[in-house]
Every structure is written in structure tokens, then in C-alpha cells.
Amino acid sequence: MLREYQDAKAYQQSALEAYFRLLLVELRRKYNHIHSPTMPSPYLGQLDQFLTLLEGHLREHKGVADYAALLNISSYQLNQITKKHLGKTCSAVINEQLVLEAKRHLLATDYQIKEIAYNLGYTDVSYFTRFFKKQVGQTPLEFRSNFK
Question: How far apart, in whole angstroms, are the C-alpha atoms of residue 31 and residue 47?
Fold first, then answer.
């Protein structure tokens, strides 16, 4: 493509368009090769079910085993599904969702930290604060004050 661009020959525009189309085809092939699901489609359905359950039951269930039981599969299978399709462990997905909800509460409401912790299913505020700091790098109060 570079040579074609640098040499001012007849039909240069057409040649560059053809090279560009070939480049896009190659990129699409590589993307599909990397992201093509090797698991049968039922696993994608279980992933969707897991993500739906996660949104609806985050307050009550924070463990991989809880969601695996709801899906009638083993924790190992659920972890394999999330690793294959999301590139992370199931507990990492759960923690990310918890942090996302905590951040949403911190920025969109004036709730106290203990109220946010309770809304997310934590009975121990100090445990929630340690969890949040480990995930985000700052306490919930520091996070809130940095964005207000």
C-alpha cells in the first residue's frame, strides 16, 4: 500500500481501495480467528443467563458458587465460560459489577457509605470499604470527593 501510495501511477486510487479492502478482509479474518467461539452455543446462553442473574441478584449473591448453583453448573464450568468469552474469572466479573454499582451510588446519590454498603448487601461497612479500596485504589469517601 505504501509503495502504491508513493508511486503516482495510473489507477492509483483504485489500487489503494483494493489494497485497503484486502487489509480489512485480513483484519476481519484475524479478529474472527481470535474471537470465534470454540464452545458450543449453549455456553453463550449460560453466559447471558449469568450476566442477567448478576444484575438481578448482586445484593444477595457475591460468590461464584451461588451463581453456578442458580445455573445448575459447577463453579469450574462457570469460570471456564467467563474466562473463554470475557477473558476474566467469574469472581472478577462479580467484583467489577459490585464496584460499578458502588461507584454509581457514590456519584448519583447522597447516601452515606454505610447505606451504600447495606444496599449492596454488605453488613460490615469496614469490609465494604476495604473491598472497594482494594478494587479501586481509594476509599469510597475519597472516590466520592474526587468526583464532586
Answer: 21
Q: Which residue has the cell 451504600?
A: 116
**b/e per residue 20-41 (b: at least 16 CB within 10 A):** eeeeeeeeeeeeeeeeeeeeee
pTM of the model: 0.70
CA 104 to chain centre: 16
For 21-66, write each residue's pLDDT tens digit.
777 777 777 766 555 555 555 677 888 899 999 988 989 999 999 9
The total number of residues written for the chain in this structure = 148
Segment 15-18 long-range contacts (CB within 8 Å, at least 24 positions apart): none
DSSP 62-112: -SHHHHHHHHTS-HHHHHHHHHHHHSS-HHHHHHHHHHHHHHHHHHH----
Cell of residue 135, nine digits: 478494587
Identity of residue 143: F
Q: Are 115 and 77 in contact (CB under 8 A)?
A: no
Q: Cα–Cα distance between 148 and 110 in angstroms, integer?
A: 11
